[in-house]
Amino acid sequence: MAASDRYGVPPELIKAVCLAESGMNPRALSRSGAQGLMQLMPATARGLGVADPWDPVQNIDGGTRYLRSLMQRFPRLDHAIAGYNAGPKNVEKHRGIPPFQETQHYVVRVLDLYDHLRDNRPVVPEDLAAYGAGQ
Predict the structure, then answer these.
(1) How far is CA 14 from the centre of its chain?
(2) What is the mean pLDDT of residues 62-84?
(3) Which terminus has fewer CB within 10 Å in the chain: N or C?
(4) Of the candidates 54, 101, 98, which has an alpha carbon nearest to the alpha carbon of residue 74?
(5) In Å, how far from its chain's centre is CA 31?
(6) What residues are paired with 29 via a beta bridge?
(7) Percent of the chain residues topping a pLDDT of 90
(8) Res 105: pLDDT
(9) Is 97 left (phi over 0), alpha (psi -120 to 50) or beta?
């Protein structure tokens, strides 16, 4: 909840991204090298000042800060989410959600998870505490 409060991003959206990115696995490693709960690429993590992307607190803080920057850059939430997946330059280049099947499915998945969590299962501090991220 600390990252949510710090950056003004709904905790349900943070959890939706974590679920879509890693299935809430703090040790997740993608084929492309993305790490942790919010699947930060090493260069992105370094740029965000995340010293240990395997640490759930640092990973969520950095990923949430990055998501917030995208939400400020793109007025539409679906475009910000697409930017998280495909990169902001691709969203700008295509003037919206890029025509990549993976990104299009990702945006739908995150928004569906976010809606479900917000409407039916609001995040409480205990949800993230299990991952060491509730501080």
Answers:
(1) 6
(2) 98
(3) C
(4) 98
(5) 18
(6) 35
(7) 87
(8) 98
(9) beta
Active-site residue, 126 included: no
Q: What is the mean pLDDT of residues 105-125?
A: 90
CA distance 48 to 91: 20
Q: Could you give the 3-state DSSP secondary structure of residue 29? A: strand
| pLDDT bracket for residue 38 (50, 70, 90) | very high
Band (130; pLDDT cuts 50, 70, 90): low
Letter string b/e over residues 23-58, b meaning 16 or more CB atoms within 10 A of that residue's CB: eeebebeeeeebbbbbbbeeebbeebebeebbbbbb
Within 10 Å of residue 130's Cβ, how many Cβ atoms?
Answer: 10
Catalytic, out of 12, 21, 102, 126: 21
Q: Give all domains of the chain, ordered by start, each with its CATH number.
A: 2-129 (1.10.530.10)
Alpha-carbon distance of 132 to 127, in angstroms, equals 10
